[in-house]
Each structure stands twice: as C-alpha cells, then as structure tokens.
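haha ok so turns out i had the wrong file open the whole time. this is the CORRECT one, sorry everyone. sequence first:
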Amino acid sequence: MDLLVFQASALDQLLGALRDRGFRLVGPVIADGAICYDDIASAADLPAGWTDEQEAGRYRLRRRESGDDTLFGYAVGPHSWKKFLFPPSTRLQPPEDPPDRPFAFIGVRPCEMAAIEIQDRVFLGGFRGVAPQGEQGLGSKHPDTVYAQRREGAFIVAVNCGEPAGSCFCASMGTGPRAESGFDIALTELTKGGHRFLAQPGTERGEAVLRELATRRATASDVGAARTVTVGAQAAMGRTMPELDLKRLLYDNTESPRWDDIASRCLACGNCTMVCPTCFCFSVTDTTDLAGASPRRHRAWDSCFTLDHSYLHGGSVRRSVRARYRQWLTHKLATWVDQFGTSGCVGCGRCITWCPAGIDITEEVAAIATQP
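then structure:
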C-alpha cells in the first residue's frame, strides 16, 4: 500500500469519513490538567500546541514553543484505551447493552497498540492476531463477552511517537516508537517544511478511508522526515529496561533483599495498576434489594496491591507490601510470558510517572540484577 501525505488541515476529513461510517470518535483532549482520552467531534478538540513533561512521580502540561500547533506532540497521559474496551466498572447481570457504535481510536501510540494486542490475548485468546502455536490464553476457551463487544470493529488510527517522555522506555521493550502492526492507519506528524501527516494504511478499510482525503503520494523527502522523527524519538527515550532474561531474573530472585527496599517506599496505592494499559485484574460484587427481587452483578477494576485481592478462606495470602509488589512485578515481566506468550509491559512509563513515591520499574529490575 502506498504511503500518502495530507495536510494537517485535512485531518477533519479523516475524522468525518470515520464518523460517516458510524464510528464513535475517541481521542486525546485536555482535561483536569492532563492529556486524557474522551469523545471528540473534530480536530479542534485535540491538544494543539501542548506537550507534557514526565519523570518519576511527576507529570506537568506546558505550552509548546510560540506558534507551534503540533497536535500529537506529547507522550501518554494517565488514561489508556483499556478504559473503553475494559471499562473500570461494568454491570454483568443483567448485562449492559453493548455499544451502539464501534470505536474509532484517534492517536494510539505504538506502545498502546501493543497493549491492546496484549489485552486481546488475555480476554480473547488471540483476537485480531494468532497466538503462538500451543498457547492457551485466558480467553482462548472462554472469551470475555464485554471486551469482545467493545473491541469488535474498532478502528485504530495510530500516531508514531516523536517526543517521548522522561519515563518512556518502549524502544527497549520492542513496542515503539514506530507502529508495526495492528492499526488501520498509522500517521507520522511532520512540522518542518509545512504541517502535514505521512499516512500508512494497514488494512483495506484504512486504505478506503484515506482515498476520501485530499492526499498525494509521499516523496523520498517525506519518508526521510518521518524516519527522522521516530529515530530521534528512540534516541531520546528517558529510560531503558536492562537487556536481560527478565523472566529468569525474577524467577531466580524471589528472595532478593531489594524487595524489602522497594516495600519501604511503596505505598501499595495501586496507582501503577490503574494507569497500566495491560493490567486486567477485577473484582465481582453481587448485590440485591431487601426483597431479593433485583439481583445485580458488577465488575470493577481491582489491583494486586489491595489486601483483599489475594484473600482466600482464612485471610490474605499476600499480607505484606513486599509480597504484593513482588507479585505485580514478577507477573508483569515473567509469569505473564508463561500465561500469554508475551511480556505484560510495553514500556509506556505510566507506572513510573504516576507513582507518588517515584518508584521506577527499570531501576528496580537493574538493582535486582546487580545485587548479590
């Protein structure tokens, strides 16, 4: 499929083409001092001229340089797309009505695209992808109906990264800064020499949408400029995950003294699991009225950092913060591989940014690797 270029002013044509096809448009907006994901009506709703500054335990929005109207000149905020596919709270019985329109996600970063594909494995066992031979994902025999209904037909407009945050490390996880698969259209925003987008169709329906825009074929100069954007982003990553056999490292260090060091700082607040785009733990609650005539069953996000999460008859299995943090990190980087054939981390850095104690997952892995 040909690489195409369209002017930034034509982005509304793309959004209009998706809206005309019956999609519900969701994209980045400014809300509560952060870049969040919500319904959008046009390109005017996007965070033009804004960027973010992120480090361990710190997130700030700021205006870009005077006159810079870049639309996707930020990394990622506290929201991930899982809030739409795997909602924070869902009524299971009686079941809620499925969405009346499929989603069109605008501005999905490559690390987030990888996170969606991971949750596909978890909830649907390889939906929109083929699990490695012999794998049995959680959803392979029992797909999650709520997730399936919300995921079905979703249109993905990915945007390759140009400005990673200080907490980003997707390059070392192999999930960015350039989208490789899973999208309908992948965009690279170019601002030098005119504000425009280089577009790569990934599916036939993505190609059909692009045909409705005022586009031209990309030149060698356009392609080179797009490559410069992602190469520069890779070089500017604020963090790096150590190049180790992470699964073996964590399996061999369940009694590392580093776990005590982490526990002395960790608040067990669960922020890291709430902002993580792949964490999928949930709790189920049954309620009824006094007459017992209107039973309800609800599902809500949960966290392995809560004491009740590991509750069995007689009490919690993981009573200490040490045990709960070790469970989270070991599952994310090790046992997840055994369950689903992939790491549960995509290197988005949200768990670093939104940790009030500034705990850095890459730093902790490096420390475990170097301690005797």
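The two ends are 52 Å apart (CA to CA).
again sry for the mixup
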